[in-house]
UniProtKB/TrEMBL annotation:
This is ABC transporter ATP-binding protein. PROSITE patterns: ABC_TRANSPORTER_2. The lineage of its organism: Bacteria, Pseudomonadati, Pseudomonadota, Betaproteobacteria, Burkholderiales. GO terms for molecular function: ATP binding. Keywords: ATP-binding, Cell membrane, Membrane, Nucleotide-binding, Transport. InterPro entries: AAA+_ATPase, ABC_AA/LPS_Transport, ABC_transporter-like_ATP-bd, P-loop_NTPase. Residues 5-246 form the ABC transporter domain. The keyword tRNA-binding does not apply. PANTHER family: ABC TRANSPORTER ATP-BINDING PROTEIN, CONSERVED COMPONENT OF ABC TRANSPORTER FOR NATURAL AMINO ACIDS-RELATED. SUPFAM superfamilies: P-loop containing nucleoside triphosphate hydrolases. The keyword Transport applies.
Length: 254
């Protein structure tokens, strides 16, 4: 197996608080890996370190063997390390079709010219349509993002991340805040993501974690507490203990 993303003794301090404590994790190519942990465990901080939103106090991050620890967000994204991001403010006035056309066009270095009937517009529109189909957005493609159901907005976040052609996709709580009736579409879309895209999922929803991931890393107090297959994590009494009786891994069966 090839390691795509790896951290070496990664540490982040905020004053006296150690939010990420000496974390060394490996993500293999094609993995479906989940990052879980109780509130305040350091999940968001770790993701922000991986994407470059935060800079590490010490330690190293490698993407496909290349040291990216000091690279800015956009340079890591260009190398294929992409996260879902909150669209609510960014693209509120645009339709999914327009936002995706812009995202694809930006990736191709063509800026906003895609909105004019010029050049490779046809190819961009084809890719746009394919992404909307993949992410269940065709039925809302011409509606303003601001008025879309929340589940569709989260799907658009995934589609926009896919438009960047990620090699590693960091999915940040894709069903957080989504009403029950809209979750299935997201679970299906996430479940059908292309196999060649490596995925690290941060999630509180254990149904999604156990149905989607094949490897789980548990963070506690900023440190990597335990890592293993779904079955190993589900039966590990230490994991149950750190969640202090929350209904976390009870529902999982081999
Ligand atoms: N910018 C910051 N300044 C100071 N402390 C911070 C900052 N960001 C995070 N922390 C602290 O770092 C610790 C880890 O926070 P983080 O948000 O990474 O945890 P989390 O696992 O994502 O939590 P949750 O599941 O609640 O989102 C917490 O104690 C938090 O208060």
């Amino acid at each position: 197996m090839t390691t795509v993303l790896q951290t070496f003794n990664l540490t982040k301090r905020f004053g006296g608080l150690v939010a990420t404590n000496d974390v060394s994790i490996k993500v293999e190519r094609g993995a479906r890996q989940a990052l879980i942990g109780p509130n305040g465990a350091g999940k968001t901080t770790l993701i922000n370190l991986l994407t470059g939103v935060l800079s590490a106090t010490s330690g190293r991050i490698e993407l496909e063997g290349e040291d990216v620890t000091r690279l800015p967000v956009h340079a890591r994204a260009r190398r294929g390390l992409v996260r879902t991001f909150q669209i609510n403010q960014l693209f509120a006035e645009m339709t999914p079709a327009e936002s995706l056309a812009v995202a694809i066009s930006e990736r191709e270095g063509k800026g906003w010219r895609c909105l004019r009937p010029l050049g490779k517009r046809g190819e961009i529109m084809d890719e746009c349509a394919a992404l909307m189909e993949q992410c269940n957005l065709l039925d809302v493609k011409d509606r303003k993002t601001a008025v879309l159901p929340y589940g569709k907005q989260r799907l658009l976040e995934i589609a926009l991340a896919l438009a960047a052609k990620p090699r590693v996709l960091l999915l940040d709580e894709p069903v957080a805040g989504v009403p029950d009736g809209e979750r299935r579409e997201i679970l299906n879309t996430v479940g059908a993501l292309p196999e060649d895209v490596t995925i690290l999922l941060i999630e509180h929803d254990m149904d999604l974690v156990f149905s989607f991931a094949n490897r789980i890393s548990v963070l506690v107090n900023g440190g990597l507490f335990v890592e293993g297959t779904n079955a190993e994590i589900a039966r590990d009494p230490r994991v149950k203990a750190v969640y202090l009786g929350e209904e976390v891994v009870e529902g999982y069966h081999d």
